[in-house]
Amino acid sequence: MSADALLGVYDRDLVLVRGKGSWLFDAEGKRYLDFAAGVGVNGLGYGDPAVTRAIRKQSRRLVHASNLYLSPPVQELAARLAAAAFPSKVFFTNSGTEAVEGAIKFARKVGREAGRTELIAFERSFHGRTMGALSLTWTAKYREPFEPLVPGVSFLPWEDLAAAERAIGPRTAAVFIEPVQGEGGVRPVSPAFLRALHELCRQRGVLLVCEEVQCGLGRTGRLFAYEHAGITPDILTLAKPLGGGLPLGAVLLRADLAGALAPGDHGSTFGGNPVAAAASLAVLDRLLAKGFVAKVAAKGEWLTAELLALKQRHPRAIADVRGVGLMIGVEFHGPAGDVVKGLRADGILATKAGDKVLRLLPPLVVRKKEIRRFLASLEGLLVRGAGQPPGPVPVEERFSAESAEVAKMS
Description:
Elements: E1 16-20, E2 23-26, E3 31-34, H1 37-40, H2 49-61, H3 72-84, E4 88-93, H4 96-111, E5 118-122, H5 131-135, H6 140-143, E6 153-156, H7 161-167, E7 172-177, E8 180-181, E9 187-188, H8 191-203, E10 207-211, E11 235-238, E12 249-254, H9 274-287, H10 292-313, E13 318-324, E14 327-332, H11 336-345, E15 348-349, E16 351-352, E17 357-360, H12 368-383, H13 395-409
Parallel strand pairs: 3-15, 5-6, 5-7, 7-10, 10-11
Antiparallel strand pairs: 1-2, 2-3, 4-12, 8-9, 11-12, 13-14, 14-17, 16-17
């Protein structure tokens, strides 16, 4: 079957037809260990029995009725999210970028009477592809083809509190931060900085938006990534794993601020679809089960430790290992694209975050033996020279390697 009718905004040639657990299968029957999880969407992997049961059951009852009416799974999901996070009112969307759009509108509506319309984000931020979310996205290659964008947005250096103190002023409506930057290179914010930023926003009457589209819902070894800092944001955005593979996002707005929004201020035809909400309830059952998120944290700590050991053994290839939970970035001295291609040839799928960072987002249910499979494949690539900077090996490194070989033979 030809893909010629599809708009060429993706560079893709792999045809996937089914999945099970942490594995995907292509049209020729080859299987792949998935360390991308649909860019963080498939937190419970593929074919989770409870999620698929919930989808089948709700689809037989009601697929869509519009937001002109209430729906029991949508009501229940809103209540459960607010109970798990903080006292809030929930607005459902179809995607993460729509959740960010909603957060922008809510922040401006809350601050409107005080003249607060400006927004602050951070260098290397990525908040989505729609015009508002794109305006909060730092990387030039995403922004420039579509300028002019929404005005009133400024960017701060990552973890620079002095810059934040200078920038946050009487016209600032909200500060948007990813507790772990995803597309920006998998960069966790330090808990100390997030606490200080939260306090600064509180003192100056500015809303703090934690954008957890990629890093939320168990990914970092906590249900929400902001919990690592012991703070509560004013607005929280969620998506990717929320719908168990179906399109679903959410904006949680602090309950005492919700009075600023009136009927008609915002809307979505498909946001909060009953089938997606039913799937999400099954996802939450799993995430909130005793010990589940703790296991994610433990697997993430072990994977990080093994990657740091790889860094010690292959310092010419690996420059840095960073992340939290099962959201980890491996930065190479050379291009990460070669590593991604090599992994795929060995039956493992992963993605980049920038030119030099391998982004690891395995399903939260990934098994240790599957992590070992990935580590063995990655080390094999490093031994063969993947991830190293282009150009010849320096003389001193060749000499050291030759000396080591002589020592082994003696």
